Amino acid sequence: MVLLQNSGVPIYQQIAEQLKEDILAGKLREGEYLPSIRGLAKDLKISVITTMKAYELLAEEGLVTAMQGKGFYVNAQDSEMLREQHLRRVEDALGEAIAAAKIAGLSSQELVETLQALLAVERDR
């Protein structure tokens, strides 16, 4: 896990986002336990409170559940919810790409051509 101290994003949010990505990508599967709060805090050299806040954020989103005495485990993920989560990430990334294209002075056509070229490269992998 990589944490950026000067990113402007709170540490707990960075942890939650990285774990969320692992859950949505299937790297952390249903029923699998997250690292212990104390263990993760020690590994990352951060406060236990910060780690707890990250886990609580994931619980609020319904991605994990706390089990008394055992820690947090990954909930079953609804395939439609997963699709929506991924769609939201795509929309966010495309929104950033559009903003960057405007700054660079790219036309809509040039942006579409760039996307098509990237899709062709990905397809050929």
Could you write a compact summary of the structure shown?
With 125 residues, this protein is mostly helical. The chain has helices spanning 11-24, 37-44, 48-60, 79-104, 108-124; strands at residues 64-67, 71-74.
Strand content bin: 5-15%
Helical content band: 55-70%
Order of helices and strands: HHHEEHH
Compute the number of helices. 5
| Number of E strands | 2
**In this structure, how is the largest beta sheet organized?**
2 strands, antiparallel
Distance between the termini: 27 Å
- Shape category: elongated
pLDDT under 50 segments (min length 5)? none
Average pLDDT value? 91
Strand order of the largest sheet: 1-2
Describe the fold and architecture.
The protein has 125 residues and is mainly alpha-helical. The chain is 62% helix and 6% strand. The chain has five helices and two strands. A hairpin with a 3-residue loop joins strand 1 (64-67) and strand 2 (71-74). The longest helix has 26 residues, at 79-104. The radius of gyration is 18 Å and the shape is elongated.
